[in-house]
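Ligand-bound model needed. uracil.
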Amino acid sequence: MKNLTVLSHPLLRVCVTALRDKATPPAAFRRKLSEAAALMAADVTRDLPTKTVPVETPLAVARGHALKREVILVPVLRAGLAFLDPFLGIMPEAKVGFIGIKRDEETALPHVYSASLPASLAGHDAIVLDPMLATGGSAVEAIRLLRERKAASVRLVSLVAAPPGVRAVHAAHPGVAVFVAALDPKLNSRSYIVPGLGDAGDRAFRV
Ligand code: PRP
Ligand code: URA
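Prediction:
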């Protein structure tokens, strides 16, 4: 699929396996989500635009690089929170916005219950963090909020995706690059990813 990158570092595949395992308890589940994000972060940010800047070494002036635009990291509550720290680890100067979205348990339609974002995201590269991309409804809404605010680019990072979710994001937001660690075959009748890893928010936070 165009604009979809399935990352396959061996350590990432090992992490996904632990996360799929229903015996993995919440503390280990949160830790593994964080490890997975750390393994994905360099690839997700690989093509962030840079500009050249001079830098003074102790000996001379060298040609250096700085990010061309501000980066804003946007975890989608709740599960996306577990992805935040590793991304901040490589981009400590990034801004952080928060979007709260909950799927309706009957219809699987997304309900946006909170958005804490700058009024304008012009001149910002946005990175949406949400481990699960199932129907795509939540991601489509999250990205809509960022594009409404004129983000210069939007990337979406998920751990596990299903094809309907990727298609929905690309149909609604064609320019968005999607990065995942696993593309699973399908959704079940309740719109859960199969085989997936279950409900990521519930498994991370126990409710
Ligand atoms: C999960 C997940 C995504 C969404 C994906 O959140 O973290 O945000 O479902 O499903 P979709 O692609 O069909 O929209 P959930 O709604 O369960 O909220 P929670 O993390 O607070 O439990
Ligand atoms: N949300 C989850 O946490 N898991 C799924 O499989 C689908 C949506």
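The CA atoms of residues 80 and 130 lie 4 Å apart.
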